[in-house]
Model the fold of this input.
Amino acid sequence: MRTFSQPMFLLVVDVWLFFDRLGVATCFLCCARCSPVQGVCEQCLLALPYPQWSCEKCKDPLTVNDHILCGTCQKQSRMFDSCVAPLEYAFPVSTMLQRVKYNRQIVYARPLVKHLINNLQKDYCDKPWPEALIPVPLHWWKLRKRGFNQAGVIAEQLSKAIDIPVYHHLVKRRNNDQSQQGLSANKRKQNMQNAFALRKPVPYKHVAVVDDVMTTGATTEELCKVLKKHGVETVDVWCVARTPSV
Ligand SMILES: [Zn+2]
Ligand SMILES: [Zn+2]
Done:
């Protein structure tokens, strides 16, 4: 099985950029020739961090498979109805998503979103698809500083592939919180209280909230809570990756 390392990744990025300028499609992770649509070769795709077991409700990666639900989902009900998050937030997925978010290298999102689409197609083969996609919004100040919303970029790529419209401005984020990184689950939850408000009524009964990564789920849950309070009956959550809670 192929393994990845940070120094190798940095070297590969330079080589990949060189080939990209020449118009040659190579894998983002090993520089082998590959389909320009896929972005990552078959071998690297198989070596990405897939959780062996995960919580049936929130997709929290589990270390053992003796429970169907994680500890949190056993103790409390979730505001969302289902969750698709096929990858674990670990290297190289974490680095690829950080490059999308902080370096605006959108190209790294492509293979991850394609993988998410494959999983969605399996998941929704026997149940109805949502009517609209709602990316988790950024506070306007953060959006202005960053210039784009990574969740919006992912939602646009999904929308093109599965033909479901994206609504970027239905919900606004009221809190300009600092990064939630390093905060406990309870602190994250407190920070997110009343973080979202609707700009206008949502004319749908079934939507999917889209984000790049779900950590404790505090942000996603707060957004789902607002949507349900205003008449949405079913809220699914779609993320590229899930951070393990332990
Ligand atoms: Zn590769
Ligand atoms: Zn769970």
The radius of gyration is 18 Å. Residues 49-242 form a domain with the Rossmann fold fold (CATH 3.40.50).
